[in-house]
Prior knowledge:
Layout: E1 8-9, E2 18-25, H1 27-31, E3 40-52, E4 55-69, E5 76-91, E6 102-105, E7 111-112, H2 113-122, H3 138-147, H4 158-168
Parallel strand pairs: 5-6
Antiparallel strand pairs: 1-7, 2-3, 3-4, 4-5
The structure holds zinc ion (ZN).
Amino acid sequence: MACLNPLKLSLRQLENTVTEFSYQLDDAFYQGLEQTEIKGGLVQAKVVIKKVADAYDVTLTQQGYIVVECQRCLDDMSWQVDVTDHLVVKFGTDLTEQTDELVVIGEQELFDIGWYLFEFAALTIPICPTHEEGECNPEMEEKLKEYAPGEKSDEIDPRWEQLKSLINN
Ligand SMILES: [Zn+2]
């Protein structure tokens, strides 16, 4: 029987020292999360969890693409994802111990692998994702040109001229 790997799991229930999970993250996965950064995608993810003393060493590898919004034309664009990230998860109650690499969860809490896969993929998105030059939605491109300052920007603002003469005096 083929069982789906759970995206939220109880670490305490892992029987082996090393457990490996594979996931295929698709549009439904991203759209099911409470987030707006990633609109969809298709990513193959591999998660390896190693039990080390009282903590869990988690390696998350992701390959594929995600769909984000182009900041120029607002159309969808694909963004390649090819990353490996690392986390240490331990049980506890002191959340101030948490860092980018250390996750503290309560005894009864499930470890939300899906959320971390999303976060690590989202971290690869540039601040201002845009299509390659010429790949933007042509209609939007036209509009952008209309509103762009164009050649006139070469003209010096008269107010700036005034200010300059003040400084030079
Ligand atoms: Zn675009």
